[in-house]
Amino acid sequence: MELRQLEYLVTVTEEASFTKAAAKLHVAQPGVSAQIRQLERELGQDLLDRSGRTVRPTEVGAAVLPYARAALAAVAGARQAVEELTGLVRGHVAVGTVTSLGQAVDVAGLLADFHHSHPAVEIGLIEDTSDNLLQALLTGRLDVAVVSLAGELPPGIGVQVVVDEPFVVAVAPGDPLADRTSIALDALAGRPLMCLPRGTGLRTVVDHACAAAGFRPRIAFEAGDPTVLAQFAVRGLGVAILPESLARSYPGELHAVNLTRPKLRGRLALAWRTEGPSGPAARALVRQARAALPERTEDAPA
Length: 302
Known about the structure:
This is LysR family transcriptional regulator. By secondary structure, the chain is α/β, with parallel strands linked by helices. Helices cover about 40% and strands about 25% of the residues.
């Protein structure tokens, strides 16, 4: 019995197909079939039911699968232990970031530094909403992510806040609000607002605050990039709700009005999974990212 045979058995079962398993394993299909046949001859029982349109484990195969997975996991664990003890980190890390990140966190610089420290590690990057990124962390599809925080975090997620700043109302100089220094949130009821899409931290904060104030926001424009919202506001298309630093980066073109009753804040955080398996490459990335991104609090300058 060889580990390769156990790997083929598990993969064929997961893919329910010899063809798909062979493609995933990057080997020829006849080789996969031959190795599993050899394993079946050694055990004296059929492990896979090939009679249907999809391949399924037989009763014996289903009984063998947990042991096959355990053997493969044990080998992977042994390799990880050796790599950690010798300082040799290989493998793959999956990183996520909110689409609306902008220049708030230098993810490119962070990943470049990590690649320089661990050139043998492959790095994958995706952009999505905070809700989807947190779910991907929980399911193991991501190892670390930069997310926008709003509400309670799901269990099993650790975070380090790296940006914490107020949200403000941003309007063009000719807007009726341009002579105001502050405004209560409920004064925006009925005004056309521009905001990030649902699922983002900023939008969640705004929706919850408006609901608590007794009105539903009238969202006239949505954009995944807050700089696009700022440009819409410059053109006088409505009221944009933006991070303060972004609104104030358009001097003469945008007027930032402080939000009161309630004050709204945006927080970006480095997030990672605290429960479940985690490889040495993922742990190394989390350690390096936490060291490179100082933790922020409401009173600390961003």
